[in-house]
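Why predict the complex rather than its parts? Because the way molecules touch one another can change local conformation, and only a joint prediction can capture that. The input here totals 464 residues.
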Amino acid sequence: MIASGAAWLAAADPTVDQAPNPWFSWEYVTTHTTQLLQAGKEHILLTVMSVLLAMLVAIPLALLVRRVRRLEAPVLALGGILYTIPSLAMISVLWPIFGLSPWTVIVALAMYALLVVLRNTVVGLKGVPQDAVDAARGMGYSKFAILTKIEFPLAMPTILAGIRIATVSTVGLVTIGALVGYGGFGSLIYSGFLQNFWHAQIMTATLACVLLAVVFELLLLGAQRLLTPWASRARN
Amino acid sequence: MGSLIEWFTDPAHWQGPNGIPTRFAEQLEISAIAMVVALAIALPLGVWLGHKNRGEFLAISAGNIGRAVPTFGLLVIFASWAPIGVGNIAAILALIIFAIPPLLTNAFIGVREVNPEVTGAARGMGFSGLRMLSKVELPNAVPLIAAGVRTATVQVVATASLAALVGGGGLGAYVVEGFAVQDITLLLAGAILTAVLAVGTELVLAGIQRMVTPKGLRLAQAQLEAAA
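Output of the joint prediction:
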């Protein structure tokens, strides 16, 4: 697909418009509902899997770093490097390993999301008031109970904020997965581009991607309200 | 691994229009133009809004909405639009839009959130208007503004590799070509070059940021980074 695209790019001239090519076309949406839903499903799956994988690595790492303080600086620095590496480069490095599979995209984006979740978890746990931990210890809470019943709930707003930022960024980045055939709406954007600048498909898929990010943002904000009712009560 | 070393040591890859120096310069050029335009728009606007304490919704939600817009989609929209067309201009425009939100939000918050005790003391000493902005608010906002500039620049330099996907230049050209001809060596070489450029930019800017931060604010800076 990409090889033919590159050859085609050299031949085509976008300044010549042969047929009407509107940016906004409701007809496109109604005639391509199946493709749009399919792409949406793929986009959601890739986003959720990437963020879950990032959490799966970041949260235990945050706990480790809290135990072994001198690991904090190097672990955060490593996360920073992974965050800085362009997703395009990450996908390229993983492609020889995973091939044309969703995992190439998921692992690449998880590495990007890792830092945000890790940093917010570390900061959130650090921000737990020592008094609350001492009180729990005085009441005979075990270390594990202190972690799950006191520290995690109190750190929750910061951790969730990290997950929210990571998720919204990931929704946008999934589009680059089009390069290996797993880009959700990005695959529609790219194939629209390669099919003679099909404006309606490019615009619809881009807007759908923005909409999906907004939905994720609102859902996670809602979850944050539900899981940490005291935070909004304190604000009021 | 051996083939990668061979690729990097082949003199043919260090010259001509597809050589590393040319591709490197293209990527820096795309990034630099995008950053200069984005800075020229976002910094005065953010600083002014922060100084007047107006437009909070614009400055803050720009950051949130900006994150939701896929840069790849923007890039393809510009490249598919006849007046712009495929190539580097489409990439530069997409990167400008990509860079504005973090710059705007940080400039706004940086100026607005200057410690009220500091601005109060300055006001008592007769500072107001432009003098307040230039002598008190701006110097105090430097850490946050610099953090925004650094984040935006690194992201722009990294994302500029996408230009090659829409017929532009830059180091991404190796990656696109590598995918097209299924050449893993070329692909990895492109990935290494873009990664090195992005990480290098981050390190250089971190150093500059430390230098431009006023001495009195360096401790606050360290705390800021821990909380960011």
